Structure formats: structure tokens, C-alpha cells
Amino acid sequence: MTAIGFDIAAAVKEYGALSRKLDKAATKLADKTAALKEKYQAETAADTAALEELETRIKVYAEAHKAELTGGKGQTAKIGAACIKWRKGRPSVKVTGNPEEIIKAIKRRRLSRWIYSREEINKAAILQEIDTLQAKPIDGLEIIPAGETINIETGV
User: Fold this and answer.
1) CA angle, corner 75, sides to 70 and 79, nearest 5?
2) Residue 3 pLDDT class (50, 70, 90 cuts)
3) Coiled coil located at which positions (predicted)?
């Protein structure tokens, strides 16, 4: 199996050996990383829980005493080396009813600007009917033939 001085069998064998070696190294690294992460989480679990508890208590207090902490103005209170900030979220719309009925009601009120109307090319449908496109081509549409890829599998 040689062609112009290249031994394909030897190359594939070497490829497999290097692939396995890299896989073992990656597994070893993942195991060590997981062990370190687990150790760190175990060592810091109590501190993490205490921090979350303090954060909750601070937020509850800050919510109840906003005027006192901010002096009645602003959205920020500096306390020691920390800063508490109150930020308003953005409003959102939640559709809780039947979308078709809501769309009808929007149209009745002549608020169609609240409704999306999109047209898109359905490429999947075109691929199912390649013959139709090939029989009557459309400018700007082109079928790209599937390419061929080469995969090397080891351990087969």
C-alpha cells in the first residue's frame, strides 16, 4: 500500500496511536480539573452559603429602607467600601391568551403595527423539490451539491 514513498498503513497506525495518546491526556486533564473543582467547592461551601445568606439579608433590608439609605434621592447608597444600587428592570409583554384571538383583537383595534409579518424563503422545501427548480431555474437561487468529506476513525 505505498504510493510514491508514502506508506498509508503506517501513517494510519501512527495517526491512531497519536490520537489515543491525546485522548488519554485530555481525559487525565479533565479528571484532575474535576478533582480540583470538587475540592475547591467543598472547601468554600460554607463561605458560599454564608455569602448568599448575607446578600439576601442585605437586599431585604435595602428594599425596606431605600429612602433612609439614599437620603430620599437617587438610586445609590454608599456604605463603607460597598455600594448598593437600585435598578428598575425593563417592562415586558407576556401573551397569556390564545394568540389567534389576540391577533384578531389587535386587528379590530387597527393596531396591526403590533403584529409581525415576515416572508422567508423555505430552503428545506426547495431541497425537497430540486427537480422543479432545475426544470425552471430562478435567478438568484442555486443548488449547491453536497461535498464529500474524509473522516479518519480509529479503534474500528
Assistant:
1) 50
2) low
3) none
Cell of 156: 474500528
Helix (H, G, I), strand (E, B) or coil at 91: coil
Residue 138 predicted with pLDDT over 70 = yes
Tell me the per-residue pLDDT of 12-34, one tens digit each, with 9 for 90 and over: 999 999 999 999 999 999 999 99
Rounded Cα–Cα distance for residues 103 and 97 (Å):
10
- Which cell numbers hold the place of 4? 510514491
Query: Which of 139 and 153 is assigned the larger pLDDT?
Result: 139
Q: What does DSSP assign to residue 146? A: P
Burial class of 111 by CB neighbour count within 10 A (0 to 12, 13 to 18, 19+): exposed
Q: Characterise 3 by phi-psi region: left (phi > 0), alpha (psi -120 to 50), beta (else).
A: beta
Grid coordinates representing 26 are 485530555
Q: Which residue has the higher pLDDT, 154 or 130?
A: 130
The four Cα atoms 79, 50, 39, 26 give a dihedral, to 10 degrees, of -60
Q: Residue ranges per domain, the chain?
A: 2-71+93-135
Phi–psi pair at 67, nearest 5 degrees: -60, -45
Note if the pTM is more than 0.85. no
Under DSSP, the state recorded for 75 is: S
